[in-house]
Amino acid sequence: MDGGSGDGVSVIIPAYRAQGTIARAVSSLLAQSFPHWEAVVVSDDGADYRTLLAAAGIADSRLTFTGTGRVGSGAPAARNAGLRCARLPLIAPLDADDRFEPDRLARLALLAAAQGAAADNVAVVRDGDGSPLSTLFPPGAGTATLDAAGFLDTSVPMFFVVRRDLVPGWEEGVDFCDDVVFNVQVLDRLGRLPLVLEPLYEYRQREGSITCSADSGARADLCYRHVLERLAGDGLRIADAALRRRFATALDAKRALNAAYMAAQAAGRCVNFQEFLALRENSLPG
């Protein structure tokens, strides 16, 4: 399926109550300039997403469908179910309410195949009206380098494209910041990876999503505390002790930032975390 390129990508899409958004996510794959991909759509709510997409006029031989056999088992379990079905040398997660820009896989696949993994800038977009809110890094041309220190300073989800033999799987006991843990585990294996400065992943801020829910701050704090306990216990499969310590320090800082967000949310100054970050950035001097 990878046409002999050796860099075909299995895109894993966990789908939970994704009926209103999954057609957009899959359409962004159909629009890719890089053809050597498959998508594994993982139903985590018992829905028949093959039929749903077909009703929207979307059918492609590169689409594969599976399920967790449960309802609401969580994104990590769904991604792991998709990983078990994936057949290509590179793995790329895509949330069912997000989308790829058309050149994303073309830009990242060769970098990931050569260097083990690759990342890109992220555009944060309000889902209701499609308006841009922010980008994770200042947009630019070319490629920089991302290491653990740079990654741990971020506050927007990142979705690496990773060579399959370096994929650690997703921690099913971590149900809120599983993407952060996954990325730190990848960086533990690689040290650093190329970062495309153009925002090619569109992260949608959607009302009703877990990260926009009224209890998102409390859920985030619970997750951070759980990850800190794991780091102090089994180490979360992170071999580098210095990285474990750095991760724990970063989580303490994230907990403090999250506490400030919950206070701002309670005071009615913001609705979600990304809005809080924009408010905070605009209030900084200079």
From TrEMBL:
Residues 10-130 form the Glycosyltransferase 2-like domain. One of its GO terms (molecular function) is transferase activity. The keyword Transferase applies. It holds the Pfam family Glycos_transf_2. InterPro entries: Glyco_trans_2-like, Glycosyltransf_2, Nucleotide-diphossugar_trans. Keywords: Plasmid, Transferase. SUPFAM superfamilies: Nucleotide-diphospho-sugar transferases. It comes from the Bacteria. PANTHER family: GLYCOSYLTRANSFERASE (PTHR43685), GLYCOSYLTRANSFERASE 2-LIKE DOMAIN-CONTAINING PROTEIN (PTHR43685:SF2). This is Glycosyltransferase. It comes from Azospirillum brasilense.
